[in-house]
Amino acid sequence: MADFSVRHSLADLEEYEVETIDADIVVNANESNYPLPAVVRQDIAARMQDFSYNRYPPMKCETLCALLAEQLGIDTDKVRVGNGSSELLQMACYAFGGAGRKIAVPYPSFSMYGVYAQMSDSEVLHYPLTVDGYLDADAVLRFCRDEQPDLLILNNPNNPTGNYNPLPVVEAIIAGAGCPVIVDEAYMEFAKGDGVDPRDLRPLGQLKLVVGSALALLHKYSNFLVYRTFSKAYSMAGLRVGYAVGSSLMTKILGKTLLPYHVNGYSLLCAMACLTHRDAFAPQIGEIRDQRDLMAQNLEDMGMQVWPSQTNFLCYRPAGRLQELLARAYDQKYGPNNLSQPSKAGKYLFKALLEDKILLRDFTEHPALPGCLRQSVGLPGENAVVLGKLRALCRAIVGNEEI
Ligand code: PMP
């Protein structure tokens, strides 16, 4: 072993790993399973005719920032673009955190927040969500008063639980946090329907899709950034484009951490084509919402506990008698183990689906979500296949017993 040391904060950091298999149905990463609409692909092909391969892309993604700003009805300097919202999250941790500074992240939520905070040498503070995954504004503000974080991250709707927090809750936190706040709205385009207060639905600029979003608070507060991505509702996970919107002060600070020419020209061009044909995504976003609600109902009918979701995924676990019977089946199939009953029950289903080349996200051993699986909403045919397999698996275990 070579005799060298690494930066302190990296010593106990593991490289990010998730199951990757050659699955037939991939519903583990909250991507869109819908291809880009034809009109967008045609527009990309046309724009590529005179693409300048030999030139650097716009240094600060100015073209895409300008189009986003125009659609949002705000000044261009209030927008920053990154390689996925991931890059902007990481860079915000460098900008607002650092050695001797604190970053507060929600729990249970997107685990990468803590990783980015740690990479920046910041102290990571986890503030708890309610048992159902909601923000409790009073509790978060108390936490901020006690811990004095230098950056607070909110995720709305929250991954992996899927639940949506009403805008007044988010507003109370932004108003009272006393520090910069990031509101990560990676999944906000899917939020509509039961659980969203109609008073939260405020149009912004030319956008019809701003639903319960902190974007509506831009004119009121200058200490926050809203994060959005093209990876989910806009079917562009493969191109890695996300953006942050906030006050000129916040975007200026974030901008100090970004490299020149950091987003490649092809990704910028594709994102511009997406935005130009924003309306073409409405049918698939609507179908994902409808499928999500239908799937939730079906899963509940099977005996699952399903978290209320306003995203393109569902978080659920076998509950009650179904959980008991699946856990027993797990022991019979896999032998002695130290897992809890909820974990065994969830894992039984996860592994059985994997054998059928269906890949979900396994949260069964997550301390705050024992037994949980997270499943992205796929194409209607894919959703029907996964539900059919789950139903058959549960029926085979439960038999004729009423659960
Ligand atoms: N925020 C949340 C809550 C996410 O779930 C993800 C992706 N899983 C991201 C940010 C990052 O998305 P991207 O980098 O693709 O924009």
Sum up the structure in keywords.
four-stranded antiparallel beta sheet; seven-stranded mixed beta sheet; alpha/beta; single chain; 403 residues; 13 strands; binds 4'-deoxy-4'-aminopyridoxal-5'-phosphate
How would you briefly describe this protein structure?
Helices cover 38% and strands 14% of the residues. By secondary structure, it is α/β, with parallel strands linked by helices.
Description:
With 403 residues, the protein is of the alpha/beta class. The chain is 38% helix and 14% strand. The protein is built from twelve helices and 13 strands. The termini are far apart. 45% of the residues are buried. Bound molecules: 4'-deoxy-4'-aminopyridoxal-5'-phosphate. 4'-deoxy-4'-aminopyridoxal-5'-phosphate (PMP) binds at residues 30, 84-86, 110, 155, 159, 184, 186, 229, 231, 237, 242.
Can you lay out the helices and strands and say which pair or pack?
Layout: E1 25-26, H1 38-48, H2 62-72, E2 79-82, H3 84-96, E3 102-107, H4 112-119, E4 123-128, H5 137-147, E5 151-155, H6 167-176, E6 181-184, E7 224-229, E8 242-246, H7 248-255, H8 265-276, H9 282-302, E9 304-306, E10 313-318, H10 320-334, H11 341-355, E11 358-359, E12 361-363, E13 372-376, H12 380-398
Helix pairs in contact: 1-8, 2-8, 3-4, 5-6, 9-12, 10-11
The chain binds 4'-deoxy-4'-aminopyridoxal-5'-phosphate.
